[in-house]
Amino acid sequence: MDAPLSSAGARPTVSAIVVCFNEEKNIRDCLESLRWCDEIVVVDSFSTDGTVEICRQYTDRIIQRAWAGYRDQKAFAHSQATKQWVLLVDSDERVTPELRDEIQQALPGDGGRYMGYLLPRLVFYLGRWWRRGGWYPDYDVRLFCRDKATWGGADPHEKILVEGPVRRLKHPLHHFSYRNIDDHIQRINRFTSISSRELRKEGGRWRLADALLRPPFRFFRSYILKRGFMEGFAGFYVAVTAAVYVFLKYAKLWEIELDEKDDVGGKGS
Description:
Distance between the termini: 62 Å
Strand order of the largest sheet: 3-2-1-4-9-6-12
Order of helices and strands: EHEHEHEEHEEEEEEEEHHH
CATH class of the largest domain: Alpha Beta
Largest sheet: 7 strands, mixed
Shape: globular
Radius of gyration: 20 Å
Helix content: 40-55%
């Protein structure tokens, strides 16, 4: 068992956790960027490509578990970590040397004052790093004291809830979120399906105003307020897809309510 956080002279230890499925194109670079961690825990959803074989070159802490949703799968990975601190990294993300050094300085330097750290994420897509357009800095708790965190949010936007103060780090995770436009569109379709179902489970109801007003505002936010226009056509494309994401989420919520009414009508006939 690791020494308590308050022990004088104790070196903070870090478990990296990674959840993956069929990520042979990304997983090596991800795990290579985590070699400095004291432990790497991989939770794999029974990949059918070479993902697990690559993971074995970096860690023996590989657990295969059927997919249970983003929040539950990552919460399970958290439960398998054994070190004082947990660093959550997605398979399409990389910890840069600068971020590694910042983490290694912050954990002992802060003396246990913080129970979590917010990391910025910097996306690489369409041949550029996206500091404009609304994707950056996208701060998210990714480094946290193992015993001071629980999981909340709803799929696919789970979040880590930390018991205690958190602070922001400066250097970003590098995020290679989409391989190409086709991959981007497929993810929009998948994530909006998940989001609409989760919204309905939480009691959300479809409103025409949401479908009419939210998408253009999202476009305006990305393209104008977040200066996506400075990225040329790429910035316009990203703003359009951001608006489409919002529109599809509410359109699918409308469809769910239609299906529910059909089910009720069918039972009453």
